Amino acid sequence: MPREPTSTDRHSRLTIDLGERSYDIWIGDGLLDAAVAWQGLPQSARALVVTNDVVGPLHARALLDRVAPLHGSVDCLELPDGEVHKNWQTLNLIFDRLLEKACDRKTVLYALGGGVVGDMTGFAAACYMRGVPFVQVPTTLLAQVDSSVGGKTAINHPLGKNMIGAFFQPVRVVCDLGLLRTLPQRELSAGLAEVIKYGPIADLTFMDWLEPRITELRGLDASALAYAIRRCCEIKAGVVAADEREGGLRAILNFGHTFGHAIEAGMGYGTWLHGEAVGCGLVMAAELSSRLGRVSAAFVGRLRSMVLAAGLPTVAPRMPASRWLELMRHDKKAEAGSIRFVLVDDRGRADVQPVADDIVCDVIAQCTEPSRDAGFGPST
Amino acid sequence: MPREPTSTDRHSRLTIDLGERSYDIWIGDGLLDAAVAWQGLPQSARALVVTNDVVGPLHARALLDRVAPLHGSVDCLELPDGEVHKNWQTLNLIFDRLLEKACDRKTVLYALGGGVVGDMTGFAAACYMRGVPFVQVPTTLLAQVDSSVGGKTAINHPLGKNMIGAFFQPVRVVCDLGLLRTLPQRELSAGLAEVIKYGPIADLTFMDWLEPRITELRGLDASALAYAIRRCCEIKAGVVAADEREGGLRAILNFGHTFGHAIEAGMGYGTWLHGEAVGCGLVMAAELSSRLGRVSAAFVGRLRSMVLAAGLPTVAPRMPASRWLELMRHDKKAEAGSIRFVLVDDRGRADVQPVADDIVCDVIAQCTEPSRDAGFGPST
Questions:
Q1: B47: nearest CA in chain A?
Q2: A11, A209, A249, B380: which is deepest, by most CB within 10 A?
Q3: pTM
């Protein structure tokens, strides 16, 4: 008689090795109900689950029940949903609650939500009493592949995205694929942008695997999802381990993000989802790489098709070229005027290089208009 | 013919050894004009001197001139002076300026001011683009002895002091004793509270040295000041090296601070200077140590005399005992209800222990009223 699958058959664990700040990522379907994913977490008198008003009503109860045995009392705070709320005012709601409840420096924070909740809860944990432990429970595909590794936390400033933040590692990440069943299709697509990103910058074999499976992933196939998430986390972990504080190599993870951030900021945060802006940014950055002779037009076409298959935009919004440049100069990778871009090559390698404004403007013009003739910007 | 004293004769350097985050503290008279103290600092296209509207007009010009050769452009931001401004709104002025000037992640921040400017500039540096280098140029005695070592940065929250912050090390600290000549006498006294603190917790020989020299220090004797600041920094560095992130030992540096923070918060930040509250807190914490049989009444008397000689209050403000307890429970050292205090013994050693509320209330009553009979609180 075949034995029942154990939780460890259905669930995989990936250890992120950062010395004394090492932690485990659990990936699997139904982890919110699986004791194994929650073993060994810090116990404390108080804990706070931070979520948003969309995810909270769906999943907070299950998480509260799961972690209740670890803490004397567990409180729950629902933030307003959306990137537009990723600011100091909303962050302060977390501090207010922690202090109202007299939470001490052993208090554990749980981030139950997407990237916004994760970034804000992580930053709150980094700053509250100069650091308390936090657990990531990402509920979007984007957050599962992108926020699980790297320890980046931040809030936005009116003049720039993620401008105020900290590098701060969680004590655990629990990626329950079941949580993705309540995710709107548009958000699932947005998450695929970060998944697609990993092929060109680090692993063309993964790109080959992914190319025919995008529809499967959009259909929430658990096995394909688990593999994709794990592989993305592994690749990212390798990059981050080599460069925890973003001195150099780590910047390659921002492939597509310089253009993407400009789209997000230019259109107003929240108009385009982060993943949508990155999806379009991937195509633009590939095009830029092609202009510089690093990849073939066929490679760009392949990437564009994957972005399209993911249900993401591949045509950039209309903004004056000067506005694009201004927005990209505010990007954190920029240094004193020169705009630096992550460029890829045909061997699945990436690096960061400054690119002359006129070439950048050409790419913007090309990616904004399907027809070159109707475009604005400098002619080529 | 005697040679001219070189800068290294008059200036001393103390290296704080924290691995890759090691940095130097320069201590001496006239360092703002001494090239040696500014050698080896990071160069960058942009830099920002953060100061306040009292110190800025006195010393910002000299600092701007000194560091100009290191940077393409150096901007200056004057914050409103005072502990009441150590909040998010003021912190955000720094972020606003950095982003308005398109400052990148290599931008160097200089903190020119007392503890408030240092804490806010350091926290801004910790958070801006997740971390940019900063240089401390403390202009108060308190900041020179206390903020030079330890990497603590923070802002206040309406419900608690220093509740939001980060551990973040400067790349250099320059303690120019000459800057103390423009310091009001009240602030100089406040700084002496932290100087006095180091004897009881770590070095009774230093307490013996200090006891007859408090008047000299108040008279700004450069040689005595240099020795006192250096010795305080050395002691603190030893403690911090053993416990950078305040896991245990480091808490002894908060001798007097649990009571002191309650006074500051209870009276409203800025009513009592931090050092005044700590001065009174030292006497209260010594009294508590005496109640628990750790030091003699004579020791408490000696410490009280030193605090008095420094021109600091030794009698606590009137607040209901319940208010004291409530405020102290919000202190970061508190864990889930029990209030923990730094206690000292007769051998110059300190540790942190929970103390029963009734004993704490006795000490509060005794230290609030010169006559025990007229006091409020539980009788003994």
A1: A336
A2: A11
A3: 0.85
CB distance B45–A330 less than 8 Å?
A: no
Cβ separation A92–B96 shorter than 8 A: no
State the complex-level ipTM. Answer: 0.84
Tens digits of residue pLDDT in A70-112 = 999 999 999 999 888 999 999 999 999 999 999 999 999 999 9
- The residues spanned by each domain of chain B are 7-182, 185-374
Among 3.40.50.300, 3.40.50.1970, 3.40.50.2300, 3.40.50.2000, what is the CATH number of A7-180?
3.40.50.1970
The rounded distance, in Å, linking the Cα atoms of B165 and B147 is: 14
Q: Which amino acid makes up residue A267?
A: M
Q: Which distant-in-sequence residues (6+ apart) come within 8 Å of B170 by Cβ?
A: B23, B111, B122, B133, B134, B135, B136, B151
Residue tagged 């914490």 (tokens): B285
Instruction: Give the class (CATH, top level) of B7-182.
Output: alpha beta
Q: Which residue in A194, A234, A264, A276 is the catalytic one?
A: A194
Cβ-based contacts of B331 with chain A (< 8 Å):
none
- Report d(CA B200, CA B29) in Å as an integer: 28
> Which of the four CATH numbers 1.10.1200.10, 3.40.50.300, 1.20.1090.10, 3.40.190.10 does domain B185-374 have?
1.20.1090.10
Of A175, A166, A104, A171, the C-alpha closest to A146 is A175
In terms of DSSP bridges, do strands A23-28 and A172-176 run parallel, antiparallel, or are they unpaired?
A: parallel
Among candidate residues A59, A85, A257, A294, the one labeled active-site is A257
